[in-house]
């Protein structure tokens, strides 16, 4: 029996008294230990983590030190997903306590300074290889692109997934195009990534595959990150030709465009929020566990009343390109809450489920334990630190839920495109191929939600510009791409 199946039976935090925070999640994953003694000790991790977060919010070094010592002691019992996550959270809380202290924040080393680029890129690839959800996202997105480009002779695919980009996704799409009735189209692929070596390797792999399949192919590398692209001249940056059929794929990147200067720590409102954070965290720390629980906790809405300017500029630029379809995959979590308390509880639940899923993958494939450890420390660990430590423009891991993304897309002039039965079915088949009972999917408003147990982890949705601004016209005669990389 996989750990997630026992998690729901282990503990539940009783909800606090009715107050402003009634909608925050109150359940935390806890792996079941064979020995009930260690399990009893691990059950204390939840309250200790909440207590530590409250002490950090208070700014108490002495109390935080005691809580951190307790966390270290509890996590030393046995190696497991919750223990490893708790250590990362403890590190994040310690950093959050130090950051306001003059001189301390400048002494903290940014991950980009101590992670060598090749090792970091390996960790990114390991995440795509290990995660059942990213593989499922690739399969679903590819099917949606194939359906949108069914009758096109020349197809331009724009991959804006940046660090999540993986040549495996496009190799499989080329093979699907090769088997298309009536023959394959000419394919142009533009990939945005911040690693020139990665782009060179990707170009080499895809060009060889296209040569073998005899598909006319062009590869257009763009060095950069999504948030640094010049949206005023996106057509030229991405080498989009007027009138061509365009499909845009953007996985796990658009949340970085939600950045706003929401740091209110110096205001009176900020002080009131700080006091509310402390009170709420203390209540959760003192809550009593019960033997049964449900993971279907209420979902806290994002505080965004308007689409942030950077995201709005990006979506306006995308709409002007008149793509046939745009596929979006995002983390389905509310890590964009203004209040630290909301973010802390949401991150604790979300990453506990994600760590547990990767633990199950590595458990079924013990030789991949090193890959799992690298992903936890270098990719997920740094996401958690950004969510819990950073504020304002420095916080870029601003994940939001599917309903909030739908709001942003609709405001920016996009219509929702329902995922087809076949796209959802192929995604489900890919997810089930990993053989993990914890992997689940749900269809919500013709979008796909990928879950571990009952916890939503990722969403996949499809969009196109509103009628009247959508593609379909062929304003210029298109030239078939040469059968080579340029």
TrEMBL record:
A motif (VHIID) lies at residues 155-159. Keywords: Transcription, Transcription regulation. Residues 466-486 are annotated as: Disordered. It holds the Pfam family GRAS. InterPro entries: TF_GRAS. It comes from the Eukaryota. The keyword NAD does not apply. The keyword Transit peptide does not apply. Coiled coil: none annotated. Residues 389-464 are annotated as: SAW. Belongs to the GRAS family. This is Scarecrow-like protein 3. It comes from Urochloa decumbens.
């Amino acid at each position: 029996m996989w750990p997630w199946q026992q998690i729901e039976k282990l503990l539940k935090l009783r909800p606090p008294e009715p107050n402003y925070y009634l909608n925050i999640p109150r359940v935390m994953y806890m792996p079941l230990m064979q020995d009930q003694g260690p399990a009893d000790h691990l059950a204390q991790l939840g309250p200790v983590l909440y207590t530590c977060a409250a002490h950090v919010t208070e700014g108490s070094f002495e109390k935080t030190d005691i809580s951190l010592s307790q966390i270290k002691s509890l996590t030393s019992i046995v190696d497991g997903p919750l223990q490893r996550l708790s250590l990362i959270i403890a590190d994040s809380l310690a950093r959050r306590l130090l950051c306001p202290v003059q001189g301390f924040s400048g002494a903290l080393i940014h991950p980009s300074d101590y992670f060598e680029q090749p090792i970091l890129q390996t960790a990114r690839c390991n995440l795509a290889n290990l995660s059942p959800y990213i593989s499922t996202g690739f399969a679903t997105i590819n099917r949606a692109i194939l359906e949108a480009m069914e009758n096109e002779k020349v197809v331009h695919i724009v991959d804006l997934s940046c660090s999540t980009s993986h040549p495996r996704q496009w190799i499989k799409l080329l093979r699907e195009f090769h088997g298309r009735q009536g023959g394959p189209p000419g394919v142009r692929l533009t990939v945005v990534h911040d690693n020139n070596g990665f782009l060179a390797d990707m170009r080499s792999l895809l060009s060889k595959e296209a040569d073998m399949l005899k598909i006319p192919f062009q590869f257009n590398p763009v060095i950069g990150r999504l948030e640094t692209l010049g949206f005023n001249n996106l057509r030229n940056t991405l080498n989009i030709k007027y009138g061509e059929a365009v499909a845009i794929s953007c996985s796990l990147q658009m949340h970085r465009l939600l950045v706003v200067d929401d740091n209110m720590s110096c205001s009176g409102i900020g002080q009131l929020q700080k006091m509310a954070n402390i009170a709420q965290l203390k209540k959760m720390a003192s809550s009593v566990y019960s033997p049964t629980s449900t993971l279907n906790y209420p979902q806290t809405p994002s505080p965004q009343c308007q689409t942030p300017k950077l995201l709005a500029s990006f979506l306006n630029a995308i709409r002007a390109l008149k793509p046939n379809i745009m596929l979006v995959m995002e983390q389905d979590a509310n890590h964009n809450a203004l209040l630290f308390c909301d973010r802390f509880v949401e991150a604790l639940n979300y990453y506990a489920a994600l760590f547990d899923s990767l633990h199950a993958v590595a458990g079924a494939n013990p030789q991949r334990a090193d890959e799992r450890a690298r992903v936890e420390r270098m990719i997920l660990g740094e996401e958690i630190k950004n969510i819990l430590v950073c504020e304002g423009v420095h916080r870029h891991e601003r994940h939001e839920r599917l309903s909030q993304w739908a709001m942003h897309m609709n405001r920016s002039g996009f219509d929702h495109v329902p995922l087809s039965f076949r796209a959802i079915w192929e995604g489900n088949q890919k997810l089930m191929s990993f053989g993990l009972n914890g992997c689940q999917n749900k269809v919500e408003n013709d979008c796909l939600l990928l879950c571990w147990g009952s916890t939503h982890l990722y969403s996949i949705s499809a969009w196109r510009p509103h009628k009247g601004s959508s593609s379909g016209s062929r304003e210029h005669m298109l030239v078939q791409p040469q059968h080579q990389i340029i």
